[in-house]
Amino acid sequence: MKKGKIVLVMLVVGLCTLGAVWAGGSAEKPAATQSQAQPAQSSNAQPIVLRLAETHPADYPTTKGDFKFADLVKERSNGRITIQVYPSSQLGEEKAVIEQVQFGAIDMTRVSISPLSAFVPAFDALQMPYLYRNADHMWKVLKGPIGKQFLTSLEPSGFVGLCWYESGARSFYNSKREVKTPADLKGMKIRVQQAPLMVGMVKAFDAVPTPMDFGEVYSALQTGVVDGAENNWPSYFSTSHYEVAKYFTLDEHTRVPEITIASKISMDKLSKADQDLIKQAAWDSMDYQIDQWAQYEKVAQEKIRANGNVITPVPDNSAWQKAVQPMYDKLSPDLQKIVAEIRAVK
Ligand code: BDP
Hints:
Elements: H1 3-22, H2 32-35, E1 48-54, H3 61-76, E2 81-86, H4 94-102, E3 108-112, H5 113-117, H6 135-143, H7 145-152, E4 159-165, E5 170-174, E6 189-192, H8 196-204, E7 208-211, H9 217-223, E8 228-231, H10 233-238, H11 241-244, E9 247-254, E10 258-263, H12 264-268, H13 272-284, H14 286-306, E11 310-313, H15 318-329, H16 333-344
Parallel strand pairs: 1-2, 1-3, 6-7, 9-11
Antiparallel strand pairs: 3-10, 4-10, 5-8, 5-9
Helix pairs in contact: 3-13, 3-14
The structure holds beta-D-glucopyranuronic acid.
Beta-D-glucopyranuronic acid (BDP) is lined by residues 55, 62, 94, 111-112, 167, 193, 214, 231-232, 235, 258.
């Protein structure tokens, strides 16, 4: 090959590589295919790498669900599609991650629907306080037509809804005093997720809502920036919040489902067959995650009780339910309709 020709080939190869990077996705196209003049391969044969952001550490049940999802995708694509899970907020806190997923800088994330509702307000209908009778009721809703409709409804906002994960029930905890009734919360500074609904909920209890990222809550509790927060047993445990806020009241004011979403920009770069494979694998990872959740929740609860925390049962939650009733009255007629449909699911 003449020198001029070699330079030309190198230039073309270089440009192809640049083109792949320029395309902006994490769908990697190795330039080697072209440079080695191999027979043309169908786009389906190209390796694809997608990044998934997760706030929790690797041993937390949502992260285990993410790994299961990644394994299923790898297995079903014969190793062609890799989902790289980044646990422990390595790619950022949930609100920032959701923004990046929206514009395609991160391909996927598993988040709580609370911060997502700041982007897609209709999701409020799925996280109203005391909405679900129990976990079974919630799962009938999420796995049924309403849940599927919610996953699809994300597309105009730039997301592709993949699946739901379990997150138990959220309860209040604080570092100041035992809370037995909603009146005991009055005036307390409570950290909430960055979602208007959660701000409204804490106000409904006459407490003072302080929205902040999950990763900041431990030091906020420790330094007294907030008096308390609210979460499920597993998060109260895994974050060590139970060490700095010893009063935990089992008011179980809300069940906030977890969701895995993909960037519509990233998904649109894939073939329809690959999109379907990914959607199905995510859906098929749900039962595994639900099972992991039950096991972790039990261990978390045992360890917190063994630590000597003050755990206050709430045998009758009618005063708690009454406090949040005005939130239902304030919902838009559309969301009230969805809430009625959710309640009608038997
Ligand atoms: C946990 C969710 C996590 C949220 C966190 C929070 O699993 O996704 O970020 O609550 O309160 O239960 O921010």
